[in-house]
## 1
Amino acid sequence: MQDLDFTGKVALVTGAASGIGRGAALAFAARGACVVLADIATEAGQAVVDEIVAAGGQAVFVRTDVASAANVEAAVATAVARYGRLDCAFNNAGVEEEHHRLADSDEALYDRMMAINVKGVWLCMKHEIAQMLRQGGGTIVNTASVAGLVGAPKHAIYAASKHAVVGLTKSAAIEYGKKGIRVNSVCPGVIRTAMLERALEREPGWEAALVGLHPIGRLGQVGDVVSAVLWLCSDASAFVTGHQLAVDGAMTVV
Ligand SMILES: NC(=O)c1ccc[n+]([C@@H]2O[C@H](COP(=O)([O-])OP(=O)(O)OC[C@H]3O[C@@H](n4cnc5c(N)ncnc54)[C@H](O)[C@@H]3O)[C@@H](O)[C@H]2O)c1
């Protein structure tokens, strides 16, 4: 990742206030990109912008609920108004599900999960692709999950939402390949972020079992996913599109 250069590129990152999105925003900025950070968490998102600017980078925060069409349209419009274009989009905002067997989950949970994890990614892609078509190309990476590749007991709705992200990714890659737009997903295993901390608070003692799911013998770090995202957004992956890149320490090949 060290030699990837995004100088002169404009990147949009959703869920940029925390975890994987925060790591990606910092990494894009450190490699020369102007970054638009989109999240519902204004204070934490602005703090990431301040960190980027203090290090000499360029970034702006736009308060964005990815489930809102108007918010998403405004975030993409900000990239264009502020920096002139949109080269790389990382559609990463997402929410997890507490442990429920399918028959015990309710409609409100289903609707929230689909609104953020699926409609949010679709809305982002819709507006990003419109801009990328106007300017002649771009790269999009969506955050799916290992739960977008295989079933996830007690997380059926989350798994359904992430399988949907994979469907959006594959279909858009086919539709827009000849237009210079590449679309891929990353499918992380269990990564050490606030999302994991919340899960461990609900279920103390779960960590050892989670480590045991990863043949590589450890959980993932934010940087493990960020490296894959930047590579997929860069010219180094020019012939890779419609791909679901598992960043999972071999979890899904067991
Ligand atoms: N951490 C893991 O183990 C793991 C594994 C696989 C996939 N993922 C996926 O990675 C992505 C990032 O997760 P993370 O682990 O960095 O979690 P995180 O909770 O640290 O960060 C998620 C960010 O998304 C933001 N967000 C939530 N709802 C939003 C909305 N409606 N609009 C805009 N922003 C919103 C939150 O404010 C937060 O800043 C998610 O899509 C998640 O499903 C995480």
## 2
Amino acid sequence: MGLPGVELFDDTDFRLVRPVSIGAEATIYEVTLRGTPLIAKVRVPKPYRNAVIDRDVRERRTLNEVRTMSKAHDIGIVVPHIVHVDLPNSIIFMEYVRGTELREVLYKSPETHLKFAGDLGRYLGEMHEHGLYHGDPTPANLIVRDGELCIIDFGLSGYSDDVEEHAADVNLVERSVYSSYPVMARDFIELFWRGYREVRGSFSEAEVKKRVAEIRRRARYVMR
Ligand SMILES: Nc1ncnc2c1ncn2[C@@H]1O[C@H](COP(=O)(O)OP(=O)(O)O)[C@@H](O)[C@H]1O
Ligand SMILES: [Mg+2]
């Protein structure tokens, strides 16, 4: 079929249903395990990397994603349940979250969904408060299911209490919301910060806000 990594499901209990997304680093498949639909996130080999290093890199990233996802789950954040990890092949089998990407929800009915801004602020607040950052908290990595926000894609996440990593998360939220939904962006961001403050308090909020502004100044400087 020419799809990266499909042969990995041969001779396993997993049955391929369809490809869901082909990204730069990972290919996402819908599979079933004894009739239960699941998502398989496959980090496929990169032919331009040395084979040994490549395998090592993919394994480490897979392990990192699994660890940070379970940490997020432990602190009360809704993430897909992990069902099985095939480390040698760098595959994470997880719950299929049946919902709509926040990206789509915001386009279709912006007014009714500002509530998710506060939810996202509280989620990131909890993560940062526990020394965890997401790394890519854009509306494409958020799924709304039954009115509840679920965070996916911990591929760039990590552990840090450094305000720089926390501010980088928030900067990504602000940038993606301003560029994709300019009309509602101000309200969204205000509600986001309100949720964030609820969890972390105004001292941390001010500290992170200051650093976000600094990151933006640095970015402008580089552009010039
Ligand atoms: N557990 C899941 N449930 C439902 N859809 C998912 C799940 N994981 C990934 N997806 C879908 O696949 C897309 C890409 O997955 P993601 O983990 O974000 O990989 P990438 O690193 O390529 O961005 C997501 O934007 C989402 O639409
Ligand atoms: Mg993603």
## 3
Amino acid sequence: MRSVQTRLDTPRSYMREPGGAHPPLDCPPYRSSALRHPKQPLVYLPHTITEITGPRLLSELPVSEHDNDLTRQHEGEPIGERITVSGRVLDTEGRPLRDTLVEIWQANAAGRYAHRADRWPAPLDPNFSGAGRCVTGEDGRYRFTTIKPGAYPWGNSENAWRPAHIHFSLLGRAFVQRLVTQMYFPGDELLALDPIFNSVAEAKARERMLSRLSIERTQPHWALAYEFDVYLRGPQATPFEEAH
Ligand SMILES: [Fe+2]
């Protein structure tokens, strides 16, 4: 146990993913990636001790006790289907990673973000900001209480709709160790039509972006539970946005 503790306390160097399951930077069906992707080959900067050692995040994590409950951030409760979203953050071998800052952001139950750039005519919810964060415990687990987000239209084509999703950001021991992905819900018929979900070419990798309904963790008369484990790399790695 002691050796595991020492290993986790020591900031580790980061490796670049060899590729495979992650989405390409240029994905024509996802139209805006045409403007965003680099046109020149990437230049890999040498990795130095600075990226590994500092600044340390552990002692300054900006998280308070209730940041993981998105239904308790205002005077009243938000409208929508209350759910819990929880899971583990795991390394290549499936070992839990504690002290990982997990942040989420999402649309409200009507599919609208509390953001000035989101102007489509769905109602805003004064009791829902749509952002939360927490830190994984000793067992690598995180947990959020929130409401199920709605689908929303976007400008990719005349009639494009995003399936319900929750954005995830994971931050490790150093600022360079940030990974971003999206979590989806099982059985959503919009998944088959979504260019972002389908920018991940491998079907099995796409499945790793799906949460699963957990009746065991569902709280009777309170909230359905969804489980979503995040593997940082390896054969079961969760697809990340611009991971390479
Ligand atoms: Fe979104």
## 4
Amino acid sequence: MDHAHQPRVVIVGGGVGALEAALALRAIAGPVPTIEVVSPSDTFVYRPLTVTEPFGAAPSAELPLSALRETHDVAHVRSTVAAVHPDAHEIELEGGDRLRYDALLVAVGARPRAWLDGAVTFRGHGDVPAVQEILQGIREGRIDDLAFAAPPGASWTLPLYELALLTAAWVADENITRINLAFATKEQTPLADFGPAASATVRDLLGDRGVRMHHQATGFDGRLLTLDGEPAIRADAVITMAELVGNPLPGLPHTDEDFIPTDDFAAVDGVPDVWAVGDATNYPVKQGGLAAQQADTAAAAIAAAIGVPVTPEKSDPVMRGLLLTGVTSAYLRGDKGTSDAAFDPLWWPPTKLAGRYLAPYLADHHQIDPAKQQLHDRHPVEAAAKDREEMRRLAVEFAEADARWGDYESALRWLRTIEWVDGVLPIEHDELRRRWESELAASR
Ligand SMILES: Cc1cc2nc3c(=O)[nH]c(=O)nc-3n(C[C@H](O)[C@H](O)[C@H](O)COP(=O)(O)OP(=O)(O)OC[C@H]3O[C@@H](n4cnc5c(N)ncnc54)[C@H](O)[C@@H]3O)c2cc1C
């Protein structure tokens, strides 16, 4: 690499991997390189909380990519990359213009593909009305059997488990008793990527909420969901996630499924000065937290390549997943053969997108997720002792505030949170519960 001029780093994409890489590179390399992010969209969309929108939560936040110019001297080029020309060290934009790079980082994500005819495929904000229509169908008694079907191919299925658990909590809040909830997946145990302890916790959560587990779904005719190696089950409606296929860039190598092959330092196989991270790569698990860790690895490798005195380290990713359950959140972690699950944060800040630089950035600049510190893991016992007390205090405070507003439903939900975490509701709170339950009944 020629260092006579200011090194030019180009990042393709405007999602999790691209943003984390831009922030990490600026942190590691300081003002040395110019950094440009090429993405067709003007905003970064925060997807993790879109699963809560069908149940009444506000639309998820969007962050203008132009903000990166002010905060980190990162320019946004609004365009789609049509091809990479590695020999010339150039990318070709839609329309034919070319941009030179010294180092190129590709974070173009994967392409979502609907795979189950007749099902609602949940990809984020745009699919919220279709899920709300299903909830309305349940309320009106048109839907008695609802199934959640995980795709057979590559996908990040944690949001589908969240939709199932959030639906179960919503059904309980609505006092609907005749609904049957089912979850079909090829996994032997739910969310097995997090390891046995975490997976057993998710299995128990689903069981406690009456969500029955089934084998992989293979087809849906509007009435029956056919399953692999098991008799079909009745389903009035089915919710699924998209299957992810690669998003190949002409000029770069790709696997049969169109994913970009990379090594342990996130370098693209056989292509000098090009790195790739996230859902676009052939790494088998597609998750934002992993994309962010790969982006940190790539940023260090790029910094070293442009002459910054830093020793790049091999990527050694840790799985961190925050599962929204409708009552309290479950923290799942899988790391080199160990598996943890807890209802207190197992990492700090306790964000859904566990990116070392992205999480604090989103919190500081855009009030997304309460993250003010650098990402670090916590021991389950330390986490439990510290957070339980604080959580209990906050839950009572919120419950009382909701009750003052006359929102007894929400107040009672907060009490259920305490009961869920402690296993029992203290006597003084039990009295509150009875009072609020009768207020709620009187208001109906
Ligand atoms: C509903 C839902 C909820 C989720 N919740 C979580 C969660 O809680 N935690 C978590 O860790 N993960 C979560 N995920 C997964 C997470 O969103 C992805 O794994 C993550 O976004 C992958 O990051 P990425 O940078 O590889 O790709 P993306 O974030 O998808 O970004 C790809 C970017 O590349 C751009 N692009 C594409 N092609 C081109 C091109 N040719 N030229 C220029 N730009 C291009 C796109 O416009 C986009 O900006 C969730 C996913 C979904 C669908």
